[in-house]
From TrEMBL:
Domain Carboxymuconolactone decarboxylase-like: 26-109, 164-243
One Pfam family here: CMD
Molecular function terms, GO-annotated: peroxiredoxin activity
Name the record gives this protein: Carboxymuconolactone decarboxylase
Amino acid sequence: MDRTQLSREKFNELFGEFPTIDSKDPELMEILQKFIFGEVFYVGDLEDSLRELVTVVLLAVQQTFPQLKAHTEAALRIGVTPIEIKEAIYQCAPFIGFPKTLNAVNAINEVFEEQGIALPLPSQKQVTEEERFEKGKAIQTPIYGDEIQQAHQDLPENLKTVVPNFLTAFGFGDFYTRSGLSLQTRELLILCMLVANGQEKQILAHAKGNLKVGNSKEVLLATMIHCLPYIGFPNVLNAISIINKS
């Protein structure tokens, strides 16, 4: 099949009936449909379910809610569970902050309610208040060691442990420990968040982290190509360059 046929097939699979080209901007919509659904979706060995989780996260980072809702519907259509979608959005909180994360949660909840999915979803929490630091550290240390602690050694004594401890207990203890997504998927989605925001130093660290948890360089590069239509060439090309050095 050529890319026109491929785009129709993939779009139908994700969204249902292929739309009539928007009469107000037909040329842009035609370019979009053929590029995303006729080319990008066929690059690399990635499951469509993972592609849609990546897309949902990218749209959450960028706060593009009409598209976020559409891709939440698409993810559900192809078998991604509500818990997987919500966990992907929850995982955004340490990287984009709570206000944007709450906006994204509200958008996906609207879709869930429209589709008759009961809220709140079952809890995925796996730690108690007393153990969140230690369980977070048990995940963090094998992947990232003590990089953050070392980076803050020059701060005043009363401040040098604040950010590292928050990262361990909050970033890892409250989020990485949750069920609903594998560690490999969480790391890959986090990398995509960082790429969408152009955070080059953290991209390098998390590219290495992805390799440690079992995501191959081929998977990372294919995922970056999937990000292209949603965040543009500059951020993706920078990320590919960084990943190749990891």
